[in-house]
Structures are given as structure tokens and as C-alpha cells.
Recover the amino acids of this structure.
């Protein structure tokens, strides 16, 4: 492919990626400045490092009308365009959490999974055993040493969304990754 044709192809791909919404107002193909604007008030953003990763801290979600800090994450850029979003809603810092923290872990799981299912519907694939949101708190209380692990995958016309959940004892490890379906030409 000649250089002008390659440049045209990259420009068309960048335009198509920019129309692909991901999480919380982000779209593939956004510049770093656009990402910072979209995340204002939703997360604390640290500019990208030399490997193209920007870091998110203090991600907030609304739970019963209250903004609650529930996670962290990163965004990845290639040629100054957003190409991946990774979110981490894990809660594991306290090895002997009180009932309020166990409830927060349960609420976090329910809020995040409700958000993904509400937007993308039923997953196209589930591996392992993902508990129902109403069973999570019971699981922490009655089987605190058990381990449950699952992965759920959603696809829409533009992207894949993969949620990985791992309950280890009373710890909750919950991550979501958004990746474009179109091959990255950036």
C-alpha cells in the first residue's frame, strides 16, 4: 500500500474509532485532552507515560444518588489516540473487613455488573461461575474462604468488553477491559 493510501486508511480508521463509545463518555480515537475533559469529575487522571498509558484514580459511580469512589484504571494511547480502557474495581485492602466494607464490596459488584448488563445486555460468553448480585454479600458472610472466578464477554458492533471477577476469601477482584474490534492502525 502506498504512503498516501496508508495515510488515508489510517484517517478513515481513526474517524470510525472515534465514533465508538466505551466507558463513561470515552470513545476510541480520542486525544488525551479529550479524555481528560470527558473524565472531569468522574476520575482523577494522570497524563500518559512514555509507554502510552494514562492512569485513572478515584473513579466514582453513583450509588443510590451518592457518588462513591470505587476504582482505578488506565487508558492506553497509540499515536495519540485512545485504543484501550481498563478499569479496576477491586476491593481487597482490608483482610478482615467489617460489615460495612463487605456491603460496599457487594454494592460495587452489583453496580458495575448492572451497568455493563444494562448497556450491553446478556454476555455472549461466560466462563466460570458469576454469582447473582444479590448473592454476593451472603457469599462473603457465609463462605468467606471460598473462591469463585468468572469471566464474562460482551461484543457490540465496535468493541469487546471483558469483565473478570475473582472472589478470593473476602477479597473482590473485578476488572473490565474495553477493546475496539477494528484492528488498530495507530
Amino acid at each position: 500500500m502506498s504512503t498516501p493510501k496508508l495515510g488515508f486508511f489510517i484517517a478513515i480508521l481513526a474517524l470510525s474509532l472515534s465514533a465508538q463509545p466505551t466507558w463513561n463518555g470515552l470513545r476510541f480515537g480520542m486525544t488525551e485532552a479529550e479524555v481528560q475533559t470527558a473524565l472531569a469529575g468522574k476520575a482523577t487522571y494522570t497524563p500518559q507515560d512514555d509507554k502510552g498509558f494514562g492512569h485513572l484514580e478515584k473513579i466514582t459511580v453513583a450509588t443510590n444518588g451518592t457518588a462513591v469512589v470505587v476504582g482505578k484504571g488506565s487508558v492506553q494511547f497509540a499515536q495519540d489516540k485512545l485504543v484501550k480502557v481498563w478499569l479496576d474495581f477491586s476491593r481487597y485492602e482490608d483482610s478482615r473487613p467489617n460489615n460495612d466494607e463487605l456491603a460496599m464490596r457487594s454494592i460495587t459488584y452489583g453496580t458495575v455488573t448492572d451497568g455493563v448488563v444494562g448497556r450491553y445486555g446478556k454476555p455472549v460468553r461466560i466462563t466460570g461461575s458469576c454469582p447473582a448480585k444479590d448473592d454476593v454479600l451472603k457469599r462473603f458472610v457465609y463462605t468467606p474462604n471460598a473462591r469463585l472466578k468468572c469471566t464474562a464477554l460482551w461484543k457490540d458492533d465496535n468493541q469487546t468488553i471483558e469483565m473478570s471477577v475473582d472472589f478470593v476469601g473476602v477479597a473482590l477482584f473485578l476488572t473490565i477491559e474495553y477493546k475496539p474490534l477494528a484492528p488498530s492502525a495507530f
Notes: The CA atoms of residues 102 and 141 lie 8 Å apart. The chain has a mean pLDDT of 79. The helical segments are 3-18, 32-39, 99-120, 136-142.
